[in-house]
Amino acid sequence: MKKYRIPGIFCKKYTSKAFNKKIIKRIHIPKDREMIKNLFKENIDGKMEIIREIPKDVLVRLKPLAKSIKKNKGLVSRWKAFIVLFIIALILVFNLFFKDKLLTRAVETGLESVFQAKAEVNGLHLSLINGNFSYQSLSIADADHTKRNLLETGPSEFRVNITELLSKRIRIEEMSLTDFRWDTPREVDGAMEASARDDQDGKGGKTDLTLDFLAVNKDDIDLKVLLEEQKDNLVSLNLINQGNEEIETVTSKWKETYAEKDKKIAILSKDVNSLKSLSIKDTGSLAEGQAALKQIMDLYSRVAETKTELAALQDDFKTDRKHLLEMNRLIENAVHEDVNNLGSLIDLSSGSGRSLVSSAAEKYIRNRWNDYYEYGLKALNVYNRIKDRQPKELGEKKGLHRDSGRIFIFPGQDNPDFLIEHIHLSGGDDSTGTLAAEIRSLSSEPDKLSEALTFAVDWKSSSSVITLNGFVDMRSRAERQFEMEIISPANFISLDEGVPSLEIKKLSSMTDIKGESVVSDKQDGVITTLDISMKDIEIEQVDKDGFVSNVIKEILNDMDEVDFKAEILADKNSIKDIKVSSNIDNILSKKMGEYINEIAAAKKEELRTELLNYIAPSLKENEVLNSSMEKLGVESFNQIDSLNSMQNVLDAKQNEIQSDMKSGIKDEASKLIDQAPKLKLPGF
Amino acid sequence: MVSFIAKLIVALNSNSRPSELASGIAFGFLLALIPGGNLLWIGIFVIAFFLKHNIAAMLLSLGLFRLFISVFDPLLDNIGGFILSIPQLYNFFTNLNNIPLFPYSNFNNSIVMGGFVLGIILWLPVFFFITFAVKIYRGKIASKIAGSKFVKAIKKVPIISKVTSSIQKLSVLAS
Fold it and tell me: Is the pTM higher than 0.80?
């Protein structure tokens, strides 16, 4: 049988005050409190002491009660301190063994979300105390060409300012990336799980920079497309349409007018016809004759009036007709003018961007520039993704179904939230070319900086040297947002595909390039102007004795260098425009004038035919309308003729009635004379 | 969850201080009001962890309040916004912003500030109310509930019997 003992806490003797404080106040169940109060009695010393005879069921309850009384002491649990110590020890162990591994994964995940492609980091090490972050190698796949790396670096080191980090600002004082390379091949496909794509050739559909685009062929000029492009600028088409509208209006107006006159003439004709049967021979009445004459005169004056009206209308009609004929003449001139204008667009001898050599250069520059532009866009996308990461972090809070709230800004040290003071990039070797780049003051809040982002890039290889110096000023008070100087002397350029349009099989030269990029005046993009000078040009020709080949040879013998001027306008959506002009175009056009003029003339004739075909439907309509106008003209003459014949009829009728009246008068007079002898004259 | 509820019921019926329970629930409420993921929340959690109170009550109340606390976000936003824009406190907040590590507390977020201030203000009322409620429960209700026919019937339901057995086990362990 288990023996129950009274717990030590109850065996002690307490003063009345201590008993209340140490025992009673630490019992929070009223029933238990009453039980303990009943178990303690005041002894002769005036102290509270537990009674000796305690029932067994009460004795059982004393042990847990004593424990809970002990537990209810103090405000802080000591055992929790051990837990904290344990957690600190755990953090230290983590720092020693797992920190870099976990951080490697975190960095890879972060880079993958920014670049949307696989990223690998090796040999990462972070020292929070020293503010150092380094790794042995980093590679980030190109999201568009997953079997190639967008960039790759060797050993790199970042120096982070810890004081700034404690103030929730990231300030990388120095970022040194060595063995920096880009567009390198990858062994493992770099597509993310969700966006894995078929990329078979390892180039991932990368535009092949073969130079067959230099083949400017005169047959490439599609006249139909040109006409469609220039549709709004065709004066003839616009005039025809305008003329057709006018003819239609005038025709319907005159049709209506002449129809009205027709009705009036028909009434007159009816009246004239009714007068035809009129005769006074039978009656011989003078009064009737006079009435008939009056009727004829009235009708005659109506016919004359209508005739005058018609004559006046005919004058108006002639004016309208003249105007329409003038328009037809204008249309003919416009067709001629359009042919000339369109011809100038395909003018093979001008230097306006569609010229033979400049056009080839334009295509070459466009392709080369596309590469730089593509990289520029990628950099911009990455920058935007980094910028957009902050709202995403707030979004994560939204995952807990909480609002993101408002952020109140209080002035702190006026430093940006993210700043890389100095980036130093280096890479390459003698075989591939060496790269050295320095970027300063890259920040998420450029307005907080006293200086703009500046960069300097040097690329040297066996065939070319490129130096870029410039700044990007994203501060709101910036006068100029972007400027870049481009210097690239002594580049060896070899066009293995040649320039087929000039019958050049292969071309090589030394080329000096100088230029600058600035934000356009309209702020709608970046304008880059390049002065390209090609010298020591060596060519291989298709037909050494051909006309074109001889001209080219002659020109190249005369010229020390061929100069190009290029102007490239690019915005964030595309390369909008490239204009190239060259001194060789004028020389070529002179030398090859005949040849080019022949082509141009042939093209003009083709263009004329095409234009006439193009405007044919409108012209057809014009013809139909013109012929209906002609008909109206004829109709108006017919009406006047019919009025003239009516007048003749009326004249005849008038004469007839007058002669009838005369004969009637004569008959009357004869009768009177015959009756005369039978009369006696009074008083003679 | 069942274990948390069981621990809470054990604490409610054992000889623990009512203030321990009340403090646990009040801290849970305060932590629920403040959006997580900042140094302020972590700091309060660490302080609450060191204090002697019922952790189960804290975690349970934190979980329960979190379920519907977002309904009060507009209110917290208004309170926090009001406090953060008091001109007299501008210098104080500016100084706070310049103390290392303090920016990580996100005190300049209206909901964090609103949650913190409202939580601090309501901490004492919640604490006293729960203390009072526990005392009332232990003094007047507990014995009545334990002896009621309803509870006896309920105890026969499997899930309830499971909870009861958990409570009994915990009671033994606690004792």
Answer: no
Substitution target in A9, A23, A167 with the highest count of B β-carbons within 10 Å is A167
Closest residue of chain A to B171, computed from CA coordinates? A64
Find which of B72, B97, B101, B118 to mutate to test the A interface (most A CBs within 10 Å of its CB).
Answer: B97
Q: Which tokens go with A396? A: 């994560």
DSSP A435: E
Nearest by CB: A28 against B16, B35, B174:
B16
Of B98 and B143, the structure prediction assigns the larger pLDDT to: B98
Interface residue B152 vs chain A (CB under 8 A) = no
* Confidence (pLDDT) at A207: 36
Q: How far is the C-alpha of A185 from the C-alpha of A255, rounded, in Å?
A: 80
Taking the Cβ of residue A399 and every Cβ of chain B, the question of whether any pair is shorter than 8 Å is answered with no
Q: How far apart are CA A563 and CA A490, in angstroms?
A: 14
Please report, to the nearest 10 degrees, the dihedral formed by the alpha carbons of residues A328, A330, A331, A332 taken in order: 90
**Would an 8 Å CB–CB cutoff place A69 in contact with chain B?**
yes
Residue spans of chain A under pLDDT 50: 195-220, 347, 349-354, 391-399, 684
**Residue-level pLDDT at A311:** 82
CB neighbourhood size of A198 (10 A): 9
Query: Cβ A76–B50 below 8 Å, yes or no?
Result: yes
Q: Could you tell me which chain B residue has the CA closest to the CA of A69?
A: B15
3-state SS of A297-309? HHHHHHHHHHHHH
Taking the C-alpha atoms of residue B31 and residue B60, their distance in angstroms, rounded to an integer, is 11
Backbone phi and psi for residue A253, each to the nearest 5 degrees, phi listed first = -65, -45
Q: Does A78 touch chain B (CB under 8 A)?
A: no
Task: Please compute the mean of the pLDDT values over residues B5-10 and round it to a whole number.
Answer: 75
Residues A453/A444, Cβ–Cβ less than 8 Å = no
Residue pLDDT, tens place only, B54-104: 888 899 999 999 988 989 999 999 999 999 999 999 999 999 988 989 999
b (16+ CB within 10 A) / e for A73-104: eeeebeeeeeeeeeeeeeeeeeeeeebbeebb
Separation between Cα atoms, residue A15 and residue A28, nearest integer Å: 20
pLDDT of residue A345: 65
DSSP conformation letters of A219-276 = GG--HHHHHHHTGGG-HHHHHHHHHHHHHHHHHHHHHHHHHHHHHHHHHHHHHHHHHH
Q: Which residue of B has its CA nearest to A82?
A: B50
**A407, closest residue in chain B (CA to CA):** B109
ipTM: 0.79
Please, what is the average pLDDT of chain B?
85
